[in-house]
Amino acid sequence: MNAFVVQRRTATRRVQEGLADQSVVTEQDEAGLPTCEELGNYLDNFADALSGLIADSASSESVARMVEAERLLQGMERRCSNHPRLRPSIAQHEVVAKVIEHFLELWPTYSRALQAPALDEAQRLASQGQNLIDAATEELGKYYTLLESVRAYEDHSIPNLFERSLNALASSYPGLDLLDLDRLGAQEAARLTGVLAQPGQGAQFLILDALGSVHFDPKRFHHVLGEASRLCQESSQISEVASQSGALEGLATSSRLVYEALEGFEAALSRVKDEQALMRRIIKFYGEIYEDVASPILAWYNLVAGIKSQPYTKLIQDDATALARSLTRQGQTAFLLQDDGAFLRNASQHGNSFIFEGDHVIFQLRSYQETISRAGVIDRIFSFVESVLAMNWSLMNDLARLGIEVPLKEDDASYMNLTAFRLATLWLESGAPQLLRRARAQRRGTSLSRSTGTTYSLWL
Length: 460
Hints:
With 460 residues, the protein is mainly alpha-helical. 72% of the residues lie in helices and 3% in strands. It is built from 20 helices and 3 strands. Strands 1-2-3 form a 3-stranded antiparallel sheet. The longest helix is centred in the first third of the chain and has 35 residues, at 119-153. It is elongated and about 90 Å long. It starts with a helix and ends with a helix.
């Protein structure tokens, strides 16, 4: 047998013995998911140790470096396994788990390559190892790109949410105008949810999908989007509900109030440094979203699904928790919300209803007493926002399918920078040149008012 093969087999056996040595005292694992930097450092350390073993199989230093690299990987695997799968880090958790899964196969694969008696077998195994590295780096690259795109949506140097969204779309999809983005968003909506996005709704889908793919549970978010859309499309009640007094106006008001709530919350984030104060503000923010933003949407879905039959103006007077609870208790709508969120809503509205103890929140409501980790509370809040955004997009998309416009008051449009002048300007900057070129090619005119209307529906 080749002497080099014997030496490398000896080296791999020493690495395995080192990893199996229970007498070695390891440091306590750090808290939290491994970072991209830590994963990258492991790969560098593994590559250096492997190069050392290939160059000098008898080197004790190379054996020790490989053992150290693999022990660090084992520690990262434990951290990933022990870390709760909660929002807003579910997507990160899934990426890290996939990368570690690939990394765990590296040493077994390359150790077989080191011990292979024939060159062609060693090359085949080394190729498999490289494929594992490529798959892991691709996962990290996609996630990093997604993080960068979401940071653009969270760029507080641009105070207006609408303008910030436009800037983020331009950064994520350079070279595409609004009409291109709308078409791309429609394609993505169809691919991920099976839903046909109406003109103007595709670009909104791109924004929601980017945020959802980082901060929410992406699989559940896409599921709710798809199922809520089908619920709306299959309902015979949409047009009837839209004709009721206050129903469309309620949705318009909800759009205004979500802007107000987000702006207030972002202002608090920039000022508040104390963790307890910030956690208290997050719970209060949940109450604002629940009462002001979600109530009209919850009422609509109760009517669209045929769960409630009273007029919208009467139904909207019901307690928001009752509206949520009625959805969770019906099989056809139970998927919309993970729970009715009543205790969090009530806690946000009543003083002295919760206290902090370490990393936990103790709720002391008359009808509800429980101790939940702060991470668990944040997960429930993000879950509710996840549901509300999916339900709202699905409902708006179906209203657009039916040609039903949601009215927006002039002062509300001005507050959100969605005025007719701003939207017409966007159309002239983006959609008009393309449409006019297409019109000339087809030798027919294009209506400015009709095209501007499409741009309106993009943001309402």
